[in-house]
Design goal:
binds zinc ion, six-stranded mixed sheet, Alpha-Beta Plaits, alpha/beta
Length: about 450
């Protein structure tokens, strides 16, 4: 590998300046859910890219604008970097030790809403670019940034944006918005995300709640209708009963199993952290538990509502009942297909009266662990973190990586400044400055090595 002394020393010498820039970005609220400061933040991010010689376009969508920036590099290679400038609402404010939009540096950590998710990633990547430009005068490869403003509200316009801008977003590889180290300080490479299909199921059996003495023997009960419908979705054996639900699922490969087997044991940690006495399906731990955790799809009742739930008794027959249900999907299931199958299933079981409201979804997507870009990102990490990056074939959560993998055809790698106590989405969100610097050093290497 080339010598990174000059780049590393620039990154260290100018670290305070970079943290100050991050603090200015965090001080600009950009709460998507509350439509607070979105345009202002997009323009601030645009100006930060322009200051590095990027051609910037603030591109309108049906929701918050996307900031696109491009700066040409020496080689023919192009790296697409995906980030987002929106943040989660800061509430409850009383649980913050310092105000969420007044970044505060304490004991090697910077606190503030969005400092980790995702503004710290944006600015540490710009810091890496500054180091390269300062020491070499130009970029070794072309860099394109796509920085959206709706990641925290399900990226509803991102798929369409990517479809309509395929040429603009053309690249050789994509760097994802997040990444980081685990509790052992091992840098992790997350190669895939499960999909999700989120629905609300609702039943209405009358125009109003009724006295249970009057209606109990002769009126349909919305709560029972819903419970019976839910009962058809999954058996006590945990098998999901929707016809065709498991069609098209790719089983984990031998390579996946090998990578999963190398991950740390989770059984005892889960039991103590969540107070769970035992796992379902007779699982006890080891690689079987970890594979089951991410490689099988789910049907989860996330919430149930009906009738009277206050103190004491109320003899009432509820007119309405509803449940929030999410399905976590594995490659190659598709949320639209699952929603259609759910509708047919309910109809076939006599539950045409159960309405389905679509609350959003993402298809699953993953990148091959042996893709050359993944290998490159993992290899250069070793130079920074002084240990090999650990490859994780699939994680349980979901995100909008599908259009990057399937529409743009890119390998997607993760890298970042996250760590287990970063408190993203929660009060006292923070980053560790040492990991901020490491991420910048890592990114500088990825950009240089991709150029070849
Ligand atoms: Zn987030």
């Amino acid at each position: 590998m080339p010598n990174y002394d000059k780049i590393d020393s620039y990154l260290e010498k100018n670290l305070d300046q970079s943290i100050a820039e991050l603090s200015r970005l965090v001080a600009q609220p950009s709460v998507g859910a509350q439509n607070l400061g979105m345009k202002e933040c997009a323009s601030l991010v645009g100006n930060m890219l322009r200051a590095r010689g990027f051609d910037v376009r603030i591109m309108e969508t049906k929701g918050a604008p996307v900031v696109f920036g491009e700066r040409k590099g020496k080689s023919g290679k192009t790296l697409l970097i995906y980030n987002h400038y929106d943040v989660q609402p800061p509430e409850p404010l009383e649980l913050w030790d310092s105000p969420p939009f007044e970044p505060s540096l304490r004991e090697g950590k910077l606190y503030g809403r969005g400092v980790s998710d995702d503004k710290g990633h944006i600015v540490s990547r710009l810091h890496a670019i500054d180091a390269i430009l300062e020491t070499e005068g130009e970029l070794p490869c072309t860099i394109k940034f796509i920085i959206e403003g709706e990641e925290e509200t399900a990226s509803v316009n991102l798929f369409e944006f990517i479809k309509q801008n395929r040429d603009l977003l053309k690249a050789d590889a994509c760097m994802w918005e997040f990444g980081g180290v685990d509790h052992r300080e091992v840098p992790m490479q997350y190669l895939g995300l499960r999909g999700i299909c989120y629905v609300e199921l609702s039943v209405e059996t009358a125009s109003t709640d009724v006295h249970s003495g009057l209606g109990g023997s002769i009126f349909p009960n919305a709560a029972w209708r819903l419970v019976w419908a839910l009962n058809t979705l999954k058996g006590e054996d945990e098998r999901i009963r929707i016809k065709g639900f498991y069609d098209g699922i790719r089983q984990p490969s031998a390579r996946d199993r090998e990578l999963m087997a190398a991950l740390p044991e989770v059984a005892e940690e889960y039991k103590s952290r969540y107070g769970v006495r035992q796992f379902i399906k007779g699982l006890s731990g080891g690689v079987d538990l970890r594979i089951e955790e991410v490689f099988t799809p789910t049907c989860t009742i996330c919430g149930l509502t009906s009738g009277y739930q206050g103190p004491g008794s109320k003899t009432v027959l509820p007119a309405r009942a509803s449940a929030k249900v999410d399905f976590r999907l594995v490659p190659d299931q598709d949320p639209d297909d699952i929603r259609r199958k759910l509708r047919s299933h309910l109809d076939e079981h006599g539950f045409s009266d159960v309405q389905i409201t679509d609350l959003g979804g993402d298809p699953p997507a993953r990148t091959d662990p042996d893709d050359p870009f993944i290998q490159l990102v993992a290899k250069v990490a070793e130079d920074v973190y002084e240990m090999p990056m650990q490859l994780v074939p699939l994680v349980g959560g979901s995100g909008p990586s599908h259009p990057f993998v399937h529409d743009l055809g890119l390998p997607v790698a993760t890298a970042g400044l996250g760590y287990p106590d970063t408190k993203a989405h929660a009060p006292n969100e923070n980053i560790r400055i040492d990991l901020y610097l490491k991420h910048a050093r890592h990114m500088a290497r990825v950009i240089k090595e991709l150029a070849g």
